[in-house]
Amino acid sequence: MRAQPAASHFVDGAFREDTAGPVIRSVYPADGSVIAEIHGATPAVLDAALSAAVRAQPDWAARRPVERGRVLLRAAEILRARNAELAELETLDTGKPIAETLVADAASGAEALEYFGGIAAAITGQTIPLGNDFAYTLREPFGVCAGIGAWNYPIQIACWKAAPALACGNALVFKPSELTPLSALALAEALAQAGLPAGLFSVVQGDGAVGAALVGDPRVAKVSLTGSVATGRKVYTTTAEGLRPATMELGGKSPLIVFDDADLEDAVSGAILGNFYSAGQICSNGTRVFVQDGIREAFLARLKARAEAIRLGDPLDPATQMGPLASAAQTERVLGFIERARAAGARLVTGGTRRGSEGCFVSPTVFADVTDAMEIAQEEVFGPVMAVLGFSCETEVIARANASPYGLAAGVFTRDLARAHRVVARLQAGTCWINSYNITPVEMPFGGVKASGLGRENGWAAVEHWTRVKSVHVGLGSVDAPY
Ligand code: NAD
C-alpha cells in the first residue's frame, strides 16, 4: 500500500491504533488500488481524543497569543517543506491532478496557518467608555471544538478549521472524510513537530456515525462542518439541541452571470475554472452559467473548444489537467445526472461520457439550453458538469439566480463595473466574484447564506466564529441601590 500511515488516528500528541474499529480502505480513484487501510474510531479512541483536548485546552488558552501564533507559523513552514510529498498524498487520496495539489492544497493550508498565526496576537476585545464607569470585552475561546471535513480539499479543510481554532485558544478534534482520511494525519504530525502541545489537535477517523458521536458529545462546545446540506441539517439539529454554536460550510448551485459586454475569453476562463477545476468537486462552483442573449453561441463555441482541450489522465503526470472523481459512487452519481439532463432535453455541447475503462474519469461536460426547472439547474452535481442557461436582462437574471435554496457563491462577468456592483449587491450569496471566479484567498471571508451554510471561514470573520465575547462592566464609583 502506497500511502499507509503510521496508525489510523492521531490522539493526544501521538499516532494511535485501535484495530477494533471498522476497516476503512482509502482508494486511489485513478486505478481503484487500495493505498491505505485504516480503522474507524472506537468509542475509546473518541473518548481519548476528547479527554486530551479537555485537559490541554486551558493551558493553551492561557498562553500569550504570540506563542500560539509562533507554533502555527512553524507548522506552516513544515507543510511548505513537505509540499511535494503532501501533494502526492493528496493526489493518491483524492485523484486530483498533481498540477493542482502542488499549488492548491497543502500550500493553501500553510497560508491559513500563516494568516491565523500572524493575527493570533491581534485578537483582542474592546474597551467601552461609560462616563464614570467603563466596560471591556474579552474574546474567549469556546474550549473543545469539533471539525468535520469533506473529501474534496482534505488538508485545506483541516487547516481552515485548525488554524483559526488554535490561534483563538481552542482545542480541535477533527474527523476527516472517510474517503480521504490521510492528509489530516500529516497536519497533526506537522503541528506536533511545530511544538503544539499534545491533545490540542487530534484526528479521529470514521464515517458519519463517528462524526455524529463527536458532534453529540457534551464536551464539544462548538462544531465546524464542511459537507453536504443533508449532513449539515443533521449536525445543526444536534448542535441546536445543545444550544451550541456551529459553522456550516455546505453545498451550492451557484450562478455565474455573463453579460454581453463581458470579455468573452475571461468569462469562458471563469466558467471553466468554476466548473472543471478539481474535476468539478468544489462547493462554490458556478454551475448555473447564465449567458446573455447575443453572445451565447460564441460563448459556447469557445467553451467547447477549450473544454475539449483539457488533458485528462494520470493524476501523477504533471501535464494532466483533470483527474478522476474521488470515488466510484460519485462517478455513478455524476453519470446519472448527465443521463437525466439529456433525457430532460438539455443540449449536450461536449463530454457527457465516462472516459476510459478503469478509474473514475468523466469528461468535462457542458449542457446548453438548460431551463431553470431542470434537475441539472437545481441540484448540486459535484462533478465536471456545467449547465448553460440564457437570459435577456439584468432584472430577470438576478431573480432567476436567486431562485435557489442555496446561496454559497455567485459570479458576474461584465465590463460595466457599476452594473457589476449593483448586481452583486442583490445576489443572495455569501461569496461573490466580479470578473473572476473561485478565488478564495485566506484573507477573504468565505461562506454561504440560505441552505449553503452559517458562519464564515477565513479572514478576520473566522475569529468571530472561533471565539465568544465576554463583557465585563467595571464600576468605579459608589453603588447606587434604590432600596
Ligand atoms: P458529506 O456531507 O457526505 O460528508 C461530510 C462529512 O460529514 C464527512 O466527514 C462525513 O463522514 C461526515 N458526516 C456524515 N454524516 C454525518 C453525521 N450525521 N454527523 C456528523 N458527521 C457526518 O459530504 P461529502 O460528500 O464528503 O462532501 C461533498 C459536499 O460537501 C458537497 O455538498 C459540497 O458542496 C460540500 N462542501 C462544501 C464546502 C464549503 O466550504 N461550503 C467545501 C467542500 C465541500
Descriptive tags:
483 residues, alpha/beta, seven-stranded mixed beta sheet, six-stranded mixed beta sheet, 15 helices, globular, binds nicotinamide-adenine-dinucleotide
What this model shows, in words?
The model has no long low-confidence stretch (mean pLDDT 97). This protein starts with 8 loop residues before the first strand and ends in a 9-residue tail after the last strand. It has helices spanning 43-62, 65-81, 83-94, 98-104, 106-119, 154-167, 183-193, 208-216, 229-241, 264-276, 296-308, 328-343, 394-402, 417-426, 459-466, and strands at residues 9-11, 14-16, 23-28, 33-39, 127-130, 133-141, 144-148, 171-175, 201-203, 222-226, 246-249, 255-258, 288-292, 347-350, 365-368, 385-391, 409-413, 431-434, 453-454, 467-474. The chain is 39% helix and 20% strand. The protein contains 15 helices and 20 strands. Helix 8 packs parallel to helix 9 (229-241). It has 483 residues and is of the alpha/beta class. The strands form five sheets. It has a seven-stranded mixed β-sheet, sandwiched between helices. Strands 9-8-7-10-11-19 form a six-stranded mixed β-sheet, with helices on both faces. A three-stranded antiparallel β-sheet has the order 5-6-20. Nicotinamide-adenine-dinucleotide binds next to helix 8 and helix 9.
